[in-house]
Amino acid sequence: MSNYTFIGIFIVVAIAFPIVALAFAYFIRPKKPNAIKSTIYECGLDTIGETWVQFRVQYYIYALIFVIFDIETIFLYPWAVAYDKLGLFALLEMFIFITILFVGLIYAWRKGALEWV
Amino acid sequence: MEFLKDLFVNIGLWFSGWLTGFMPAWGVEVVTGFLGAIILVFIGLFAVLILTWGERKVIGRMQDRIGPNRWGPYGLFQPIADGIKMLTKEDIIPTGADRWVHLVAPILVIIPAVLIYAVIPFGDGLRGADLNIGILYIVALSTIGTISILMAGWSSNNKYSLLGAFRAVAQLITYEIPLVLSIITVVLLTGSMSMVEIVENQTVPYMVSMPLVFLVFMVAASAELYRAPFDMIEADSELIAGYFTEYSGMKFVMFFMAEYINLLAMSGVIVTLFMGGWRFFGLEEILPFLNPFIFFAKCAFVIFLFWWTRATFPRIRIDHMLGMAWKALVPIALVNLLLVGLVDKLVEGTLLTSGVLLIVNIIEMVILLAILDKVGGKTRAKTMERVAAQQG
């Protein structure tokens, strides 16, 4: 059997599984909503102000560093798979590549981008 | 006797042979595919039942309690009782919530968790699919979970949920990098991303030859699974329950199940990558039907390690935790990758490579401990100075 056929079938089953479970619960569970019950749980107090607050730029910087390193790993995967077939030159090249990234990490570190304030 | 020797594979072959008798080839493919998929989903479900009971029992014993002991022998039916209770709970959608996103998030969290089982090899020939990009498939799937967590936190219209989701996403994406970098080290030695080939190439388990890589992977994995001491997401004393504060009933169960399905999947990945999967000192050749049992026994061992860490260590503060990933694990993983590449190029022969790798890893660990000791000492001295200055 083709491996990707199985993955296709498995995706269908995996999507069906939570939907069936939730649908099953939908027919069993009680439904008695009221205004107090559906208030937001915040230890008995009403929420003050808007919930969807502006978030700090810190999160954005974190995500940015993550993207840089994630793309790096995507470059590393094909290199790792073909490593046995490549010469010493490939190792040297990757050494330079990782060194540049390392410098970038140290730069971010020095700039304080890695501090969670 | 020949049939019993490789019991599970032979049952599969017999079944598909039986179907071929009265079905076209594509029909056999679809039916066996569906059955296989359903079996894999049930492995996940069974894992949820056993692991919830096991965790409560083990943690209970470690904290000098008994744990669940009322319903069934040793409280073994406790998870079933919990499940029935959850099933009959009302579904509450908070006022002002984004209804559709609130509904989709628990569905989306469980799909990637289940899909990981497709490529995990439980034994020789016992796997859903042998993709040649197996491990990349797992890495890709594990990122989808992050999106559903942000969806759950954002749609709940609750500040605690939102804060929990932000923290969760920061933690997940940060620890993803050391995790993926450790996987690359294994891929580099194997020369393949297929899970089956990774197992077949491990004459010496990578856990033995590269203990430091294994350690980095374990730490990153326990952060990815929100296991303690990295359970910032469910820091109940600060965030109530984090991103699923506003979920009840079956939707809550989805998040809960995803966590435990992921736990078994991740320990399966650890067993495959570092502990030699279904192999156990040649026993897999003599009695092939033991393969899945060996695999699950190793999984149980890894999961026990996770529980043990949970019972031992207190929760780490979030800035310390994220700092550890960026300032310790990522540099270690990068240096490791280069050293492993160098050793792999310079040394010939499997056993010799493993030996050299082990020595290199041990030297690395010693240097690392020295650096950590120095840095830690400096930080401690600074803190003491500040405290002394404050006290006047």
Write up what this structure looks like.
The complex is a heterodimer of chains A (117) and B (392). With 117 residues, chain A is mainly alpha-helical. Chain A has a single domain (3-111), classed as Methane Monooxygenase Hydroxylase, Chain G, domain 1 (Up-down Bundle). Helices cover 64% and strands 0% of the residues of chain A. In chain A, helix 2 runs antiparallel to helix 3. Chain A is flat and about 70 Å long. Chain A starts with a helix and ends in a 6-residue tail after the last helix. Chain B is mainly alpha-helical and 392 residues long. Chain B has one domain (2-391). Helix content of chain B is 73%, strand content 0%. Chain B is built from 16 helices and no strands. Chain B has helices at residues 2-5, 7-20, 25-62, 78-87, 99-115, 134-155, 159-190, 195-200, 206-209, 211-224, 236-239, 249-274, 283-286, 291-312, 318-346, 350-391. In chain B, helix 5 runs parallel beside helix 12 (249-274). Chain B is globular, with a radius of gyration of 23 Å. Chain B starts with a helix and ends with a helix.
